[in-house]
């Protein structure tokens, strides 16, 4: 009960900050509630681009969207025969009618921080003509931007490196050493203070531990 109450208090505080910044933000106690909220927000029939995101996988959103008729464009679960095929899929994700992404970290006052290896995800976050919906667990919430960057580098990146099979230093030692290696996946950092003017941007914050 105490944990649930703490998650709700923190989540509602952060959601309030996100709404003040111009997002349409919602707090959900559970994965099931969050999945229902996402399905309520995303229009039926539109194509949905989804970049690499463990949170979306854990919520079962790809299956839920596909089951009701949305065309899901993703590269996380797909197998590609060559780099060109993967690049074409990333462009298809970009050109979908709706975009759903996780969020590496966000601050108490509603600033979003994301770090990419390829840059496809942060590019879409920075600017697009289509709506975007972020979804994240309360484990992604930190005090400020400095703590957010530290969280991404020291927590999310080593786990993603292990998930993707990259033999880079953080995967071996468990935290970022600013390696600059050829396979480094901390290549592009985006700090979003305000949503894009004229674009519908949603955020669903979940009172559970989700993603990396």
Question: What would the keywords be for this entry?
Answer:
Rossmann fold, six-stranded parallel beta sheet, 21% strand, 212 residues, alpha/beta, four-stranded mixed beta sheet, single chain
Distance between the termini: 24 Å
Q: Over all CA atoms, what is the radius of gyration?
A: 16 Å
Please, how many helices?
8
CATH topology: Rossmann fold
* Low-confidence runs: none
The largest sheet is: 6 strands, parallel
Number of beta-strand segments:
10
Q: Main sheet: which strands, in order across? A: 1-10-7-4-2-3
Q: What is the CATH superfamily label?
A: NagB/RpiA/CoA transferase-like
**What's the number of structural domains?**
1
Mean pLDDT: 97
| CATH class value | Alpha Beta
CATH architecture: 3-Layer(aba) Sandwich
Quaternary state, please?
Answer: single chain
Helix content: 40-55%
Strand content: 15-25%
Structural class: alpha/beta
Report the order of strands and helices. HEHEHHEHEEEHEEHHEE
Give the overall shape, derived from the CA principal axes.
Answer: globular
């Amino acid at each position: 009960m105490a944990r649930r109450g703490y998650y709700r208090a923190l989540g509602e505080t952060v959601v309030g900050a996100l709404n003040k910044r111009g997002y349409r933000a919602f707090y959900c106690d559970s994965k099931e509630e969050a999945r229902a909220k996402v399905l309520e927000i995303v229009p039926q029939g539109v194509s949905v681009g989804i970049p690499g995101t463990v949170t979306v996988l854990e919520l079962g959103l790809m299956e839920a969207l596909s089951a009701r008729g949305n065309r899901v464009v993703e590269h996380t679960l797909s197998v590609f025969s060559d780099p060109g095929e993967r690049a074409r899929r990333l462009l298809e994700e970009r050109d979908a009618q709706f975009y759903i992404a996780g969020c590496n970290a966000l601050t108490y006052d509603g600033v979003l921080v994301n770090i990419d290896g390829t840059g496809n995800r942060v590019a879409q976050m920075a600017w697009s003509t289509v709506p975007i919906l972020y979804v994240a667990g309360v484990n992604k919430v930190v005090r400020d931007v400095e703590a957010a960057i530290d969280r991404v580098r020291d927590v999310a990146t080593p786990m993603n490196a292990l998930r993707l099979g990259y033999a880079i230093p953080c995967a071996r030692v468990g935290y970022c050493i600013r390696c600059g290696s050829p396979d480094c996946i901390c290549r592009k950092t985006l700090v979003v203070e305000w949503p894009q003017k004229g674009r519908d941007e949603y955020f669903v914050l979940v009172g559970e531990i989700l993603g990396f």
